[in-house]
Design goal:
By secondary structure, the protein is mostly helical. It has one domain. The protein is built from ten helices and no strands. The longest helix is centred in the first third of the chain and has 31 residues. The chain is globular, with a radius of gyration of 18 Å.
């Protein structure tokens, strides 16, 4: 019981202290909508809101989760409050799950905003909501652990944000969010298929518009694999760099 009380206390502390910080609002909420609006304005064709919805939702999750971790993990490491958390009556694995659960929830909620707004503009009937929600959860978990891996590899918040951008911005163009993979140069396509967000977005495309190009079960396996690898690598970095 003490373990779960500590887990819940850490999660609630992060939600109160970090969720509405400027980096989370700007990168997690405002930027995905601003970038999508720019995409719409530059387009010469009629806007297919339902067609771009999977990309907008994926982008919102990616930026929301990674921005969250860049603030919480790196800031607490810098202020040495993370060392006090190590005194909590829980294992290191459960501690880091508590630290990342907030970002996962934040990412899932981020994905809901584009869907809610789109529901007032276009007809969203025929969507497989079970698969959609499941894919959003998997994208949020994978993106969160990607942000965790980046955050535990640096010392400053600005470094975490900078390295996050090195990963996030290429994903915007390589992960089939708005530019179809078949339109990319052949030499780049293998990189696109190797990125986790490609598979998450493709599941959303299948569940929302039935136009995915990758079997969903393969994409789910890829996301599970990335989740395990990123979490284990992050824990290894924490034990090697942060715990002496």
């Amino acid at each position: 019981m003490k373990k779960w009380i500590a887990f819940w206390s850490i999660l609630m502390k992060d939600m109160k202290m970090y969720y509405l910080k400027p980096p989370n609002i700007s990168w997690g909420l405002i930027f995905p909508f601003a970038w999508t609006l720019m995409f719409f304005v530059r387009s010469e064709k009629a806007i297919d809101i339902r067609g771009v919805l999977p990309g907008v939702m994926s982008l919102a999750v990616l930026f929301g989760t990674t921005s969250m971790l860049a603030v919480t993990i790196t800031f607490e490491r810098k202020s040495r409050s993370f060392e006090r958390l190590l005194l909590a009556p829980i294992s290191l694995n459960l501690l880091m799950l508590a630290k990342t659960s907030g970002a996962i929830i934040f990412g899932i909620l981020n994905a809901m905003f584009p869907a809610i707004i789109a529901s007032f503009v276009v007809d969203l009937s025929g969507i497989n909501w079970f698969t959609t929600i499941l894919s959003i959860i998997f994208i949020a978990v994978t993106s969160t652990f990607l942000g965790l891996f980046i955050s535990v590899s640096v010392s400053e918040v600005f470094e975490a944000q900078t390295f996050s951008n090195f990963v996030r911005f290429p994903m915007m163009f390589l992960c089939d969010l708005f530019i179809p993979i078949e339109k990319l140069p052949a030499i780049i396509r293998p990189i696109s298929y190797a990125l986790p967000l490609t598979h998450g977005a493709d599941i959303l495309k299948t569940s929302i518009n039935a136009d995915g190009i990758i079997p969903s079960w393969i994409s789910f396996l890829v996301l599970i694999g990335y989740t395990l690898v990123l979490f284990l690598m992050s824990m290894r970095n924490i034990q090697k760099r942060w715990i002496y």
